[in-house]
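Table S2 (continued). Query chain:
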Amino acid sequence: MIASIVAGLLVIIGIIGIVVPVLPGSFLVLIGLLVWALFIGGLTGWLVFGIGAVFVICGMIATYVLTGRVMKREKIPDVSVIIGIVCGIAGMFVLPALGLPIGFAVGLFVSELVRVREPKLALKSSWEAIKATGAGMLVELGCALVAAATLSVGMFVHFTR
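Corresponding output:
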């Protein structure tokens, strides 16, 4: 029972970490699934881990593929995205509710403005990067939620037998 609570908390914190990229979201979801499988064991535990892990890993890969494809197409360097992330994290402390997305967007735009030196181009490339990051985040979140649902079904099966 304790293992199920710990696993559930890790999955919930992981899902939050996908939306608020300060925590290693998908990794925590995967650890939560593994904790449950290790302590519950048996076919149910390992089947839930296997199915959930496939979804989590697919979400992580999809995020990098979707985001990376747009970044390459728009020729946006990793440095601009890193600056956006750092500004987003700083923004969380300055403006707790909306600081992360606002900080990310402003940091990315300023970084791109410094790079391309033309506001219109900087705005276009920043907007494409924001859309790609958001799409990747949504896919990763969706896959993590399916993994969480898999864990929930596994817990239901385990505790009702």
